[in-house]
């Protein structure tokens, strides 16, 4: 009979007592330094993710707010006809703020003169976003105001006052009504909105209630109506947008800033992708750091668990104890990480306060939730596997040190890590392409390293440590620790790769933005110039110290036949092709397209078809001697200096749309005459550079005789704008389109996102540095042990340090080479698929990647292990 | 107390099946002190591991206080160990991040005993390390570490104590002192002691000596010349 009752052997211990024990073990482990690395890795994960999330959350809100200023609202409904009042009422009933604008072009008269003005009548709620800057004297700094002119008063842009001989308080006449000049407008939020024609001339702003008295707006007048909507509740805006779409079956559509300005939308999208990528890398790196430290923690606890098991601890009790330790650790790390994350984001804001000019809206709770969930996911996917492995520790290990981890130790941790990483990246990005790029890049590195480890395995024919020379000692050490070496190379490669990808993308993005709108970008378009006026305009600029640009002939043309057949467009044009070029928006009446689209029944395809027909029926074309800037020949040849008539160069997407080939003969109808030309080249065009761009360019002599007007651009600083008055007085037929406000706004936004991108790069760099440190630390025990033995056997300081240096440097170099390969491949994919940029080879990376890898890893490695030669070998051996 | 029946342990190696223990049977009575001796590789540590339930046998059975280990899985064996068994190892197996006191407290805490601290201090005093309670293992000498390990082994009042080469890492003088302590406590607590050693003087202090050669018991004798402590 058993001496002990079986009931006594049920091993049941209440959770409370196990948890209490876990807490005591946690404290003892902490005090012994075992848990600190893991804790710091967790805190780093929460801090970096929360910090970045807080910053991006607030910055994104600020950027949206800033962008919303361009519309003076969050959403806008524009139409050539008065949209139903019901739309406004519905918006108000949903708690949205609303405003109305009516724009038209009109002559304004004073006692001494008259001029064409861009009139804008606004109601008392305007503007819903942003502010109007007004002043009392022309061309002076103004003060912000949150509403438009009162009834009976108009506000004018500075330039209009000298042109009309007016001062504040004087009378001005629009149509049949007389107004008093109340204020001078220095800036208004949606200056560029409403299409180019609405902006031909200085602004005259009036109260909506005064429009009727002017009697200018009659049935059939060319006016544009805009309803503005704003709300802090995005969901409310979205649902209202849906209501409008459903209620009016697409006849009316709400637009946001992304619809309004492709340039800004593009900058915002790219910045968002970049910030997202930055956060992804920082999470990934934090995950790697946690995996490394948890692995080391697990290894160090292997004997610990074996002893606990000999004392009678069951596997499930071991799990309860370790899960409790990890949960408590995670909870503390989350709290500390969230606080530090908040401080980090405050620090970032402090650094950027000169750049971020808008007031940042407060952040929501989401960043903290994201940071906390990151810690939990990291812990589950990276730290749990080594702990699960602990569960399987055989108690026999207390007697036999050669027994290593079984079953769980082998593959499951990788599966956990992989699943955890992929789901985390997918969760963050909500973007399959980004996820697949990251996963493929990391997987490729893993495969590549497996091959390298295989090769190392084959070449390891040598015996012993080869302690005779530092070089051989280092090489045999690398081979002997093949598994760890490969793991280290993998971690170093992934870290260096992440940093390289971000750095390169950052450089390319910023370069691209700077190239898009360089400092001297012309900010005024002059249209409707006749040939005889060109010389006079050039002289005018010369006299006044303004640098003019080339004059492009402009003429309207339509493709009527391709090789004798009717054109047969292929599907839809790309996004760039869909948009009217700046020249076309200005020359034609943009509203017509919108209106036609609206009337066509709304759906995207419906609008597309209308546009396709519109595009085929008429285009603004030009002729030129040289390839315009921002254009690149992608096929065929450009006519040289001795250009012959009868050739045409087509923009590549447009050519694809019409299924054109080089050598095709096109028939055009130009000013009611038929012209034939052969396709001699295709071009890529940089549409977002705010410059005159053309789908179709003829060789000189082909259409010159058919009567064209000219278009030119000019850069005018704010203080030079007064010259526009003289210019239009001297050349009354020309139309000047002012896009300076738009360019300035785009440049502002780009400057902000550039700073954000720089900063995220630095944050990820710091995370990367910490991972490198964690990875070096993870292999310290064995190195300490081996080198302590070598020292007891009489190896000198120099030999050991040199061998360590060589070992780390070679691991760093291999990692650098692989990282560079991975970074260039990922960047190629990212730039093609996500950032829509042209991929350029960065030759310097191929040198600097491996070099940086070598220097950084060697520096960190030797710095961490050099203690081995300063502490007595006995101490080292006893410690391990 | 301990009954070993036809115990067989074999492992698969690249050169075929290797038998480590072959048909070993023995019985150890309550409070008996048994030394298992033999050359390196004779299977003595494997036998100790199987008797203590640290590993499973290929065939045969071990009964501890009437509980058959063969019928138990690792979880049940762990519970049984917790109730019945204490250990002393050649390499001490103290946890480096715990102080001497905490190392002794650990098995008491695992049992959920609220008086772990007091009991552990009492034992440390008993092994002569009351003043060193706050020292970490790497701050203690080998002999001191083994004394802490002995205190820990007796901490839960285990009925059976297994010792694997308890003096293997100690010099003769220190080893003698540690063994004196081990046998004193063993007597005091009336514990059954099974120890594995190839140290002849140590074996001679046990009441019975079992000799293993190539995994088989070649002699099992009462030690009439037992050296008393």
Description:
By secondary structure, chain A is α+β, with helices and mostly antiparallel strands. Helices cover about 55% and strands about 15% of the residues of chain A. Chain A has a 6-stranded mixed beta barrel with strand order 2-3-9-6-8-7. In chain A, strands 12-13-18-15-17-16 form a 6-stranded mixed β-barrel. In chain A, a hairpin with a 2-residue loop joins strand 16 and strand 17. The radius of gyration of chain A is 35 Å and the shape is elongated. In chain A, about 45% of the residues are buried. Chain B has a single domain, classed as 3-Layer(aba) Sandwich (Rossmann fold), CATH 3.40.50. In chain B, the strands form 2 sheets. Chain B has a 6-stranded mixed beta sheet. A 4-stranded antiparallel beta sheet of chain B has the order 2-1-4-5. In chain B, a hairpin with a 2-residue loop joins strand 9 and strand 10. Chain B is globular and about 50 Å long. Chain B starts with a strand and ends in a 7-residue tail after the last strand.
Strand segment count of chain A: 20
Major β-sheet of chain B, in short? Answer: 6 strands, mixed
Strand order, main sheet of chain B: write it out: 6-7-8-3-9-10
Total helical segments of chain B: 7
pLDDT < 50 runs, ≥5 residues of chain A: 1-10, 460-465, 574-579, 586-615
Count of distinct strands of chain B: 10
**First-last Cα distance of chain B:** 24 Å
Identify the strand order in the major beta sheet of chain A: 2-3-9-6-8-7
Helix content of chain A: 40-55%
Task: Kindly report the name of the CATH homologous superfamily of chain B.
Answer: P-loop containing nucleotide triphosphate hydrolases
Radius of gyration of chain B: 17 Å
Overall form of chain B: globular
Query: Low-confidence parts of chain B lasting 5 or more residues at pLDDT below 50?
Result: none
| Oligomer description | heterodimer
Structural class of chain A: alpha+beta
The CATH top-level class label of chain B: Alpha Beta
Overall shape of chain A: elongated
- SSE order of chain B, one letter for each helix or strand: EEEHEEHEHHHEHEHEE
Average per-residue pLDDT of chain B, rounded, comes to 87
Largest interface: A-B, 42 and 42 residues
């Amino acid at each position: 009979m058993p001496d002990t009752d079986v009931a006594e052997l049920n091993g049941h211990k209440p959770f409370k007592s196990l948890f209490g024990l876990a807490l005591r073990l946690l404290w003892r482990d902490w005090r012994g330094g075992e848990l600190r690395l893991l804790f710091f890795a967790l805190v780093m994960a929460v801090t970096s993710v929360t910090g970045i999330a807080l910053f991006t959350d607030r910055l994104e809100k600020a950027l949206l707010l800033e962008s919303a200023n361009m519309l003076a609202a969050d959403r806008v409904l524009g139409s050539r006809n008065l949209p139903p009042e019901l739309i406004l009422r519905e918006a108000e009933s949903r708690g949205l703020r609303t405003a109305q604008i009516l724009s038209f072009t009109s002559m304004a008269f004073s006692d001494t003169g008259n001029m064409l003005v861009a009139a804008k009548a606004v109601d008392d709620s305007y503007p819903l976003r942003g502010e109007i800057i007004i002043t009392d004297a022309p061309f002076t700094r103004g003060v912000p105001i949150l509403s438009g002119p009162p009834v009976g008063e108009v506000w004018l842009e500075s330039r209009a006052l000298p042109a009309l001989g007016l001062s504040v308080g004087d009378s001005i006449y629009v149509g049949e009504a007389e107004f008093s000049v109340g204020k001078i407008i220095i800036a208004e939020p949606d200056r560029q909105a409403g299409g180019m024609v609405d902006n031909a001339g200085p602004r005259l702003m009036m109260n909506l209630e005064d429009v009727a008295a002017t009697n200018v707006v009659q049935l059939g007048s060319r006016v544009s109506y805009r309803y503005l909507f704003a709300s802090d509740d995005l969901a409310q805006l979205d649902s209202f947008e849906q209501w409008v779409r459903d209620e009016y079956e697409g006849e009316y559509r709400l637009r946001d800033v992304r619809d309004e300005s492709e340039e800004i939308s593009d900058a915002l999208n790219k910045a968002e992708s970049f910030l997202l990528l930055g956060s992804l890398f920082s999470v990934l790196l934090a995950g790697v750091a946690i995996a490394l430290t948890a692995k080391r923690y697990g290894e160090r606890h292997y004997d610990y668990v074996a002893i606990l098991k000999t004392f009678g601890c069951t596997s499930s009790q071991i799990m309860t104890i370790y899960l409790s330790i990890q949960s408590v650790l995670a909870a503390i790390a989350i709290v500390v990480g969230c606080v530090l994350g908040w401080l980090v984001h405050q620090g970032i804001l402090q650094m950027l306060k000169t750049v971020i000019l808008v007031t940042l809206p407060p952040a929501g709770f989401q960043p903290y939730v994201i940071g906390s969930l990151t810690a939990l996911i990291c812990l589950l996917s990276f730290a749990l596997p080594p702990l699960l492995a602990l569960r399987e520790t055989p108690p026999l290990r207390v007697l036999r040190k050669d027994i290593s981890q079984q079953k769980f130790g082998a593959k499951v941790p990788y599966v956990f890590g992989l699943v955890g990483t992929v789901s985390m990246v997918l969760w963050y990005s909500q973007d399959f392409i980004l996820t697949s790029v990251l996963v493929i890049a990391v997987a490729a590195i893993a495969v590549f390293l497996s091959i390298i480890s295989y090769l190392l395995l084959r070449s390891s024919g040598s015996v012993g440590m080869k302690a005779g020379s530092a070089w051989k000692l280092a090489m045999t050490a690398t081979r002997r620790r093949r598994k760890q070496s490969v793991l280290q190379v993998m971690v170093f490669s992934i870290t260096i790769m992440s940093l390289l990808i971000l750095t390169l993308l950052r450089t390319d993005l910023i370069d691209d933005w700077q190239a898009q709108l360089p400092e001297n970008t012309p900010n005024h378009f002059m249209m409707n110039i006749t040939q005889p006026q060109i010389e006079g305009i050039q002289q005018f600029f010369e006299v006044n110290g303004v640098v003019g640009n080339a004059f492009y002939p402009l003429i309207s043309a339509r493709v009527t036949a391709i090789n004798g057949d009717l054109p047969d467009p292929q599907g839809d044009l790309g996004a760039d092709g869909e948009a009217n070029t700046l020249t076309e928006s200005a020359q034609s009446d943009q509203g017509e397209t919108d209106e036609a689209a609206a009337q066509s029944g709304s759906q995207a395809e419906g609008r597309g078809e209308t546009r396709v027909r519109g595009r085929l029926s008429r285009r603004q074309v030009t002729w030129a001697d040289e390839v315009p800037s921002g254009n690149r020949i992608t096929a065929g040849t450009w006519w040289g200096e001795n250009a012959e008539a009868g050739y045409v160069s087509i923009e590549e997407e447009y050519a694809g749309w019409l299924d054109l080939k080089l050598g095709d003969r096109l028939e055009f109808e130009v000013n009611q005459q038929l012209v034939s030309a052969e396709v001699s080249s295709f071009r890529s065009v940089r549409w977002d550079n705010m410059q005159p761009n053309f789908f179709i360019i003829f060789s000189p002599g082909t259409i010159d005789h058919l009567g064209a007007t000219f278009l030119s651009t000019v850069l005018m600083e704010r203080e030079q704008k007064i010259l526009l008055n003289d210019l239009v007085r001297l050349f009354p037929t020309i139309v000047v389109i002012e896009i300076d406000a738009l360019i300035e706004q785009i440049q502002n936004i780009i400057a902000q996102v550039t700073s954000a991108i720089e900063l995220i790069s630095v944050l990820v760099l710091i995370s990367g540095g910490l991972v490198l440190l964690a990875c070096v630390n993870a292999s310290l025990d064995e190195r300490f042990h081996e080198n302590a033995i070598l020292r007891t056997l009489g190896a000198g300081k120099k030999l050991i340090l040199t061998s360590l240096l060589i070992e780390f440097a070679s691991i760093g170099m291999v990692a650098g080479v692989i990282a560079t390969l991975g970074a260039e491949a990922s960047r190629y994919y990212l730039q093609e698929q996500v950032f829509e940029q042209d991929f350029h080879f960065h030759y310097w990376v191929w040198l600097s990647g491996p070099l940086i890898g070598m220097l950084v890893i060697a520096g960190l490695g030797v710095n961490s292990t050099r203690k081995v030669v300063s502490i007595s070998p006995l101490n080292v051996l006893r410690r391990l | 107390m301990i009954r070993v029946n036809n115990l067989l342990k074999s492992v698969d190696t690249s050169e075929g099946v290797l038998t480590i223990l072959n048909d070993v049977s023995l019985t150890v009575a309550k409070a008996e002190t048994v030394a298992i001796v033999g050359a390196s590789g004779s299977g003595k540590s494997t036998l100790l591991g199987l008797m203590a339930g640290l590993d499973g046998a290929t065939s045969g059975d071990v009964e501890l206080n009437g509980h058959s280990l063969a019928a138990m899985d690792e979880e049940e064996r762990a519970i049984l160990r917790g109730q019945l068994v204490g250990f002393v190892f050649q390499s001490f197996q103290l946890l480096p991040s715990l102080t001497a006191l905490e190392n002794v407290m650990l098995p008491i805490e695992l049992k959920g005993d609220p008086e772990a601290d007091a009991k552990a201090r009492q034992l440390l005093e008993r092994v002569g390390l009351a003043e060193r309670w706050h020292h970490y293992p790497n701050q203690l000498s080998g002999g001191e570490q083994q004394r802490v390990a002995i205190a820990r082994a007796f901490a839960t009042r285990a009925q059976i104590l297994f010792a694997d080469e308890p003096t293997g890492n100690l010099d003769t003088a220190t080893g003698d002192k540690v063994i004196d302590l081990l046998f004193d406590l063993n007597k005091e607590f009336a514990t059954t002691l099974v120890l594995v050693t190839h140290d002849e003087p140590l074996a001679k202090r046990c009441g019975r000596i079992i000799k293993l050669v190539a995994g088989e018991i070649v002699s099992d004798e009462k030690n009439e010349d037992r050296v008393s402590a």
